[in-house]
Amino acid sequence: MQNKVFKDYLFITIGILLVAIAVEYLYAPNNLAAGGVTGLAIVINHYIPFASTGTLVLIMNIILFIIAFIFIGGNFGAKTIYASFGLSLIMWIIERFFYPQALTHDLIIAAIFGTFLSAIGMAIVFNANASTGGTDIIAKILNKFFHVDIGKSLSSVDFIVTLLAAITFGLNAGLYALLSVILNGIAIDRVIEGFNTSKQLTIISSKNKEIGQFIMNGLGRGCTFLKGVGGYTGKETFIIYTVVSRAEFIKLREYIKSIDSKAFITVGEAHEVLGEGFKEISNT
What we know:
Layout: H1 2-27, H2 36-47, H3 53-71, H4 78-98, H5 107-127, H6 135-146, H7 150-169, H8 171-196, E1 198-204, H9 208-218, E2 224-229, E3 236-244, H10 246-259, E4 264-270
Antiparallel strand pairs: 1-3, 1-4, 2-3
Helix pairs in contact: 1-4, 1-5, 2-3, 2-7, 3-4, 3-6, 5-8, 6-7, 7-8
């Protein structure tokens, strides 16, 4: 259990570090306010430059958490609080000690690679059952008091931030920021799917008992035997159904090949698997 907690916080730290790098080296120097609290901080920093982006994110998160505690309760979880304030701290450290400069002044390159880094970082954080607070809190407040769906609330907040960016930095920067927001949502979904993708297999073989034993004892996974009847032979048989990781699939395929070269296997991708041996249902 302690290893799981340590692993989650380690991944959250890596995730917020990637987001901070995207903001400090690609978004902020190019005035790309790509939604969320960090985007709003970039806009505000333009008007009060003596306040760093990291400091503004920290102040806004504190205010939002206080408002949320008062109006919607304090059910955030330690991971979200850690991710939220950890992101602000990392951004402050980068600004205070590393004096970040733009890696590129080409807006489209900054938008694409900023989105790429940010999406990977956010996906890592989300995959550890946390979030960076900020925009999520605003969305929950809008949902509670104005009955706007969470998804629409998030989109509305990001749209308002990019509109402010267009007013502050010009239409060109605003449109690139909007492009980053759109791509970011798509990219986060794809990255999370990649993290959680498993292989689901159905196996028909005369060696079904041996294969079942290998799955349970050799791989430590479960499997289900389904009764079936061959359409051509009319003989009863057992079909094995199992879900394994990519690495386990390779081992299982090689084992089946070694004992029954005539086995029939179908392989599909499962983008999310919940239950014993995978992600716990209670954590979703």
